Amino acid sequence: MRADEFERHLGLLSPAGETSASELDTIRTAAELFHAGNPAHRVDGAVLARRHPWLLHYTTDRGRDAIRAAGSIGLSEHGVWLTPTIYAGCMVPYNLGLSTPVTAAIVIETAELVELWGPGFAAPSQAHDAWGGSGIEFYCPSPIPFSAAVDIVKIQPCGDTHR
User: Fold this and answer.
1) Within the chain, where are the H helices?
2) Is position 160 within any domain?
3) How high is the pLDDT of residue 124?
4) What is the structure's pLDDT at 157?
5) Strand, coil or helix: 52
6) Rounded to an integer, what distance in angstroms lies between the CA atom of residue 29 and that of residue 81?
7) I need a labelling partner for 46 at 20 to 30 A (CA). Which of 13, 25, 82, 148 fits?
C-alpha cells in the first residue's frame, strides 16, 4: 500500500492538502513530516483517537523512571515518537528502528494530545543495521504530560538484544 493510500485508509489525508507524489517519495518518518510542515500531515489527537484511542511509547526501565521523575514523556528538543501498533518485546527495536531493546510500553490516551504528525514509517536503527524500522509512527513535537499516560506495561526483550 502506498503512503497516500495508507493515509486515506486511516482517514488522515485531507483532500484540500493532498501530498504530492514527489513529497511522498522523499518524506517517510513522522518527524520528517513535521519538519516539512505540510498541514495535511498534522493530526489532532481527538480526531486520531476515533481510530486509535491509545498510542504507545516504547522505552527502557531507565527511560520509564526518568519519565516518571520528570512528569513528562519526551524532551522539548527531541519530541516524542508514538505508535498505534502493539509489538512483542523482541520485535519493537526491529520494527521501530530503535537503538536499544525496550522493557516498557507507556500507553497514552490519544485524545489528550493536541498536535501529532503522521502517520509516518519508522526510520532504520542508526545503531544496528538489522533493525530496519518501517513500523507505523506518529510524532509529537512537544513533551507529553505524564498525566496522559493510562498505563505502563512491562515488556520482556528477547532474541537479538545486543547487550
Assistant:
1) 3-10, 21-26, 30-36, 45-48, 61-70, 92-96
2) no
3) 81
4) 74
5) coil
6) 10
7) 25
- Cell numbers found for residue 160: 537479538
Question: Per the structure block, which three cell numbers stand in for 72?
Answer: 513528562
How many C-beta atoms surround the C-beta of residue 31 within 10 A? 22
C-alpha cell at 38: 505540510
Task: Tell me the average confidence (pLDDT) per consecutive run of 10 residues in the chain, 163 residues long.
Answer: 46 48 62 90 94 95 94 87 90 82 94 93 80 87 95 82 51
Q: What residue numbers bound the domain in which 50 lies?
A: 3-154
pLDDT the model gives residue 20: 52
pLDDT of residue 15: 45
Compute the distance between CA of residue 75 and CA of residue 144 in angstroms, rounded to an integer. 9
Sign (positive or negative) of CA dihedral 88, 89, 91, 92: positive
* DSSP, res 79: B
Tell me how many domains the chain contains. 1
* 117 located within any domain: yes
Whether 105 is in a domain gets the answer yes
Cβ pair 161, 108 in contact under 8 A? no
Strands (E), the chain: 42-43, 54-59, 72-73, 80-82, 104-109, 116-121, 136-140, 144-145, 149-154
β pairing state of 104-109 and 149-154: antiparallel
